[in-house]
Structures are given as C-alpha cells and as structure tokens.
Amino acid sequence: MRQYLDLLETILEKGSEKGDRTGTGTISRFGHQMRFDLSEGFPAVTTKKLHLKSIIHELLWFLAGDTNLRYLAQNNVHIWDDWPYRRYKNSPDFQEESIREFSQKVAEDEKFAAVWGELGPVYGKQWRDFSGIDQIKWVVDEIKYLRKNKESPNGRRLIVSAWNPPEVEEMAKAGLPPCHTLFQFYVNNGKLSCQLYQRSADVFLGVPFNIASYALLTMMIAQVTGLEAGDFVHTFGDVHIYSNHIEQVKLQLSREPYPLPAMKINPEVKSIFDFKFEDFELVGYLSHPHIKGIVAV
C-alpha cells in the first residue's frame, strides 16, 4: 500500500490550505491517481487497522439498492450514522439520545428507521435505479454479452454513475451527494479492471474504505462474469486531509506497511446479487493498531 502512503505524503508536501463545507479546514490537492494490481494481493491498508466488516456490509447494502440505515445498524455498522443523526438532533423529535442510542433505535424500530434512517437517493438507489435503469445488472449483462460475442476489447461503455444531477440536492438534504461518483470497467486478455472517479476524498478516513470496497467489487464482478481480476485504478478530484487528522496521518506515515493479504470469495456464487457477508474471507491480514479520527460532517 505504498501508493496510499505516497498520496498522504504528497498532500502534506504539496497541498494547500483550503476551506470546506464542514468548517473544519483541509490541506487539499486537485488531481491524483493510484493503480493496484489485484493479482498482487488485496489492497487493504496495513498502517492502521481496516474495519473490513463495515466495508463488506456497506457494499452489499449498495448492491441491494438499499438507502435506509436500518440494515447497517442491524449489522453494527456505523459509518453512515453521523449524517442522519445530525438531522435527527435538529428535529423536534430528538429526545437527547446519543448517536449509538439513535443507531440502536434505527435497528429495532422499523417506523423510526423509515423516518430517520432514510438517506435519500444515494448510492444504492443510483446503482440499481438511475431513472429506471438498473446499472449494476446492465453492466454485468453487458460484460457477459461482450465476452460471448468476442467483443470484450471493444467495450468502452461499461460505466456506472452515482451522480444524478436532478437528485443531487435531495441526496444532500439527508447526507452527502456521492463522493465516489462514477466507475468504469475494462476487459482485456481475460481480465476485468475498474477505474473509479472520486470527486472528493477524505484521504485519512474515507479513502482506505473506498480502495477496499471497489477492489472487492471488481473481484466480485470478475467472478460472476468468468474473468480474472485485473487492476483497480483510483482517480481523484479534490484529495484532502482534514486539519484535525494531521497528527494521525504523521503517525501512520511513521509505520512500515505489512505485506498485502489475500481475499477469498466463495466460488459458488454466480450472481452479483447473491453474495452474503459470509462469502468473504480476508486471509493473512496483519496491520498496525487502529488510529481514531473524527468524521467531518
């Protein structure tokens, strides 16, 4: 994961101080790209502990087309809690619950979750129902069709977009417009590669999740289309380190990375929509201890 550490160093050395929507302040740089050969190992950050459970459940949540916090809360995944909790705190229904009490209530109370756990037309909605188009089903079917007709080198339209302009404002009301906005697949020599464009990237907290999530998605789609996983290419717009993460980043940069682990996926799964949490096993993952950071909301 030297690529990720190089990005942190580049921002610290060449970035500029820049304000942001949250008022926290950042060191920011515009434009960067990383490439990970998935045959060399699964790109899980090792200079701090990565919470893989959250990443897998979030990805399955996206693929299900779900936009309500309830599934995540029921699986003890809290990476999306801050935004709906902030909205709830500003409402007349707020009863001084902590954020963990709020999450528990979302998990247990279906009616409460329907009102306060809904995030709007975010990733799952756009992936599975972009103006009536199931983009995930389409892209998987298209890859299969191109392979069957021996046209795979010519498929340059294998794109999924989460950025739906008419619905961006509605997404923003509940949380955030999509940060990872668009991804494209590329088939060549029996391998499937994926490139993600991310408009905005919290490099300390968010990017390790994004790398692992899209690398895993690439491997899953490769499996169900009969291909090998190739490269994951991560392209960025605004890459930034929040001002309250500087010391954490310096600590992380002082650590020596461990070798990459391997991701095992249940080979019996043949549909992208049939994967379950139990179908994934990260083997040989060694990491330095967790480093805590506050999410800027």
UniProtKB/TrEMBL annotation:
Q: Name one GO biological process term.
A: dTMP biosynthetic process
**Keywords linked to the UniProt accession:** Cytoplasm, Methyltransferase, Nucleotide biosynthesis, Transferase
- The domain of life is Bacteria
**Binding of dUMP: at which residues?**
R21, R156, R157, R199, S200, A201, D202, N210, H240, I241, Y242
- Which pathway or pathways does this protein act in? Pyrimidine metabolism; dTTP biosynthesis
Q: Domain named Thymidylate synthase/dCMP hydroxymethylase: which ranges? A: 2-297
EC number per UniProt:
2.1.1.45
GO CC term, one of those recorded: cytosol
In its UniProt record, a GO molecular function of this protein is:
thymidylate synthase activity
Binding of (6R)-5,10-methylene-5,6,7,8-tetrahydrofolate, residues: H51, D202, A296
What is catalyzed by this enzyme? dUMP + (6R)-5,10-methylene-5,6,7,8-tetrahydrofolate = 7,8-dihydrofolate + dTMP
Which InterPro entries does this one have? Answer: Thymidate_synth/dCMP_Mease, Thymidate_synth/dCMP_Mease_dom, Thymidate_synth/dCMP_Mease_sf, Thymidylate_synthase, Thymidylate_synthase_AS
Annotated compartments? Cytoplasm
- Active site per the UniProt annotation: C179, C179 (nucleophile)
The main location is cytoplasm
Q: Which family does it belong to?
A: Belongs to the thymidylate synthase family. Bacterial-type ThyA subfamily.
Q: What does this protein do?
A: Catalyzes the reductive methylation of 2'-deoxyuridine-5'-monophosphate (dUMP) to 2'-deoxythymidine-5'-monophosphate (dTMP) while utilizing 5,10-methylenetetrahydrofolate (mTHF) as the methyl donor and reductant in the reaction, yielding dihydrofolate (DHF) as a by-product. This enzymatic reaction provides an intracellular de novo source of dTMP, an essential precursor for DNA biosynthesis.
**What is said about its interaction partners and assembly?**
Homodimer.
PANTHER family hit by this protein:
THYMIDYLATE SYNTHASE, THYMIDYLATE SYNTHASE 1
Q: What is this protein called?
A: Thymidylate synthase
Supply the source organism for this entry: Maribellus comscasis
Q: Which gene encodes it?
A: thyA
